[in-house]
Amino acid sequence: MTTVDDVKVIELPKFTDPRGNLSFVEQLNHIPFEIKRTYWIYDVPGGESRGGHAFRKNQEFIVSLSGAFDVIVDDGRHKKKFELNRSYYGLYVPAGLWREMVNFSTNSLALEFGSIFYDVNDYILNYDEFLNLKNDGEI
Ligand code: TYD
Hints:
Elements: E1 8-11, E2 14-15, E3 22-23, E4 37-41, E5 50-55, E6 60-66, E7 69-74, E8 79-84, E9 89-93, E10 98-102, E11 109-114, E12 123-124, H1 127-135
Antiparallel strand pairs: 1-9, 2-3, 4-11, 5-10, 5-12, 6-9, 6-11, 7-8, 7-10
This protein binds thymidine-5'-diphosphate.
The site of thymidine-5'-diphosphate has 6 residues, from strand 4 and strand 5.
């Protein structure tokens, strides 16, 4: 069973350059899973929130490419807040945690990598159901 202590901030390589900095990620290296899917969230009105749900199987790796937002993770017992505001940090979120993205700054850009293809059945959208599954040790 995953807990909020399994969520990790991972510092990515950064090549500082007067022409502009460069960072990168590699699957099974900085990202501890094989990437099946990449998506991004953009044009978010300042202050907006997204993604109040948990995944049964999908692991995620989240990068704030531009601007800032907070990721709140919750294992049913404890919550932790991670402030993402640099493009050379990634947040690894294992499956089985309730997670929400909040406080998006205007013009922020969130890049997310997933370990499985999109599957609507992988989402747990109800918090009470999440707690029950967590208590039963099913996620
Ligand atoms: P969703 O994951 O619910 O966004 P959030 O958790 O931030 O509110 O996704 C929003 C919509 O986008 C949803 O209707 C399904 C669709 N979607 C895909 O088709 N493929 C994907 O990989 C993702 C992440 C979402």
